[in-house]
Amino acid sequence: MKVSILGCGWLGLPLAKKLIEQGHVVRGSTTRAEKLSELRQAGIEPLWLQLSPEPKGIGWDYLLDTEVLVVNIPPRLAHTGATFHPAQIEHLATLLKNSSVQRVIYVSSTSVYADDNRTAVEDDVITPEQAAAPALVEAERIIQEVGKTWLVLRCGGLMGYERIPAKYVSGKKNLTTGHLPVNYLHRDDAIGIIETFLSSPNEAWNQTYNVVSPQHPTRREVYLGSCEPFGYIPPTFEDDASAPYKLISSERLQTHLPYSFLYPNPLDFYYAL
Hints:
By secondary structure, this protein is α/β, with parallel strands linked by helices. It has helices at residues 12-21, 36-41, 60-63, 77-80, 84-97, 134-144, 187-198, 219-225, 251-256, and strands at residues 2-6, 25-30, 45-48, 50-51, 55-56, 68-71, 103-109, 118-120, 149-155, 157-159, 184-186, 207-211, 246-248.
């Protein structure tokens, strides 16, 4: 099938490569003109496009002449404010309504859930008012109402390859969150899950899914486990029993999708410098 990926970054580029291996025709966008040659060499039909928040660049009609659109653009809420990302998606929705796109996958985040010391399921956050990140849920709503078959994938913390947990805490002292559970997702599983949805019947679509590894070891276990293999300095811990947490359930995903996680336990994630 024809698949377009809006945002060929850390997840989108390897996703595109995997889909090409499977025989799909892939068009992909980047906001960096210097990256176009890299996309072309990977077999992707490349386009330089931006949502800032209005569409910029030449080739939007070509990108949207596709069966499936994967929307994988970082919201950057801390840098752009709460209204920018929903405005991006609103402009995109206007283009989508008049396009031949049949199905849309929106890559969202488990950051929509607050740290409220419990297990979070999809129906806990349906409206922006219920969310810790209202702008993301507003963007989800826009995608759901665009008139296409849709998926919202609330992905956990994407890890794997050079994204090594220990890298971000090497040598730090007295971390107070070591006892909290992680809600991680290996990049290979994110790609495998999207690929599996593409071949799934529409009955599995028009749903919001939490996409996280089924197991939730503590941050202490994950940090320390990824220190020694790569030479990072182990952090020290001073756990604070009052530190809030969340544990993200992926039960709905595991019920609806015939997919077996490559890395169900974050302690077993594959990393490479």
